[in-house]
Amino acid sequence: MITAEDVSFAYADTLVLDGVGVAAGPGHVIGLIGPNGSGKTTLLRTLYGALSPRAGWISLDDAPVSELGARELARRMAVVVQEGSGELPLTVSETVLLGRTPHLTAFQRHSRDDFRIAAAALSRVGARHLADRVFSGLSGGEKQRVLIARALAQQADHLLLDEPTNHLDIRYQHEVLQLVSQLGVTTILVLHDLNLAARYCHQLVLLDGGRVAAAGTPDDVLHPDVLEPVYRIGVQRIGTDDGVQLLFHPLPPSSAAESS
Amino acid sequence: MADDDLGQAGKRRRSALWLSGLSGALLITLVLAVGLGAVAISPATVAQVVTHHVAGWPATPTWDRAQDAIVWQVRLPRVLLGALVGAALAVCGVALQAMVRNLLADPYLLGVTSGASTGAAAAILFGLGAGFGENALSASAFLGALAASIVVFVVARAGGRITSLRLLMAGVAVGYALYAATSFLIFASDSAEGARSVLFWLLGSLSLARWSWPLAIVVVIVCVTIAALMTWNRHLDALAIGDETALTLGVPPTRFRVQLLIVVSLCVGAVVAAAGGIGFVGLVIPHVARRFVGAAHARVVPVAALIGAIFLVWADVAARVVLVPQELPIGIITALIGAPFLLVLVRRFHANST
Q1: Contact B295/A90, CB-based, under 8 Å?
Q2: Domain assignment of residue A234, given as a range
């Protein structure tokens, strides 16, 4: 269970988050959506302790995140961030084994169990055959799967992902999100694609200018009336057997001026 | 699949082989290197002199007193210092390349060498640190090195965070400023003899080695540094990937950088105080080690330490024998070997990036 209440954050004098709240119940998948600069990634970074909020309360199963040590937090919360892979040619197995770091003290070596957990994590994401490849030489989809395997190797019961479908083609986008939604782990993820959010998230939080513009089930949030003023684009909603799907089109110039 | 260990057991066996092979090579290197020089002494005699002094066996020398003095008083401390300095520079290079995420970083990035040179120059030319008696030179070089790294550290730490880029830029700036200070000291002192000593310091030399307190301190600091970096191997892997990755794996990046900076600058400071600024070892050896055993620091740190030790001892042998009876500054040898290697590396980088 991850809970953030009334969180505010500012870079110097610019308020990026203004009293935002989000809650992810056990096993739920929560999607953070919103236009560029609406504060999605900033909110995610406050959740895993990379940023300290100016005000508000963030807790993990009722323990305040700020009071958990870095290792303790990493044992309970795994994060897949958007970050380069550095210059060192670490292999895929070495990358996934790093997920065991929070479970080991400085003087411990990896045990056989650590190796088995890492191997099982790689198998789970269908990347076992990549184990001996150099991580930085993988394709975008392969990298994303390996990073999710590293998060699985952490054996945390909370998972945060920052735009996990970025740079992936349509098939991999679905593959990655299907994988994440089937883990049964409490998950908060940032997504740009609203149709993917509709399909794979239990709840959505729509951010706009650092505030929560709407929150609820995809069915509640993904409404033209809610989305059009936030994204400033025309939205058409289609009900399918499979759930909500959205079509987008530019607004005519007059109404664009009206809404801005 | 339940017993799948990602082939890690095999990898461990291979790296254990590497480590024992290199340890054997280091031992042979030490014995041979003590025997080589203006006066050649057989490896058997070298071994006997050492066991005679350490364990009292053989009890009666079969070698003459001159040989005894050359082996025990002159060459052994020198060869040991060479091995320590080589190992220290190599592992500190490994740590800094991971810390600033730049494969062209080396231990002198922190302005330590220029700081030590300035300290040594002040000692040689103006008698600074005379209170330390015969160790005045080492002491003031060490203090200079520490002062320089503290300045780099403070400059790079603006706003409570230390970033790779700021660290690089602060190191370069402080390095140049101190280089200017050293040049000014030489210029102002008007002593040709002093200037030559300072130059010798800048290029590095193991000729000051003898059984003494400074050597004991170097032994302790280098061993502690290698042990610390080995226990931090996963932290180094994580930091080399990125700050956010490190944080989310339970390694707070700024706190870990501070720990690394303290350990590395003490170690490099001690080494530079003992042997001057020997270049290229800390830059090149980490790459050699990675070629052999891959990038994970659990293997790179010990392997780099051994290769660095072996490399520097042989470089010192070359420095001693190339122009007998003259001795070359060891920095010339390491640069002669290191620079071509660096060029190859740059070409490879270029090939990868296009």
Answers
A1: yes
A2: 223-260
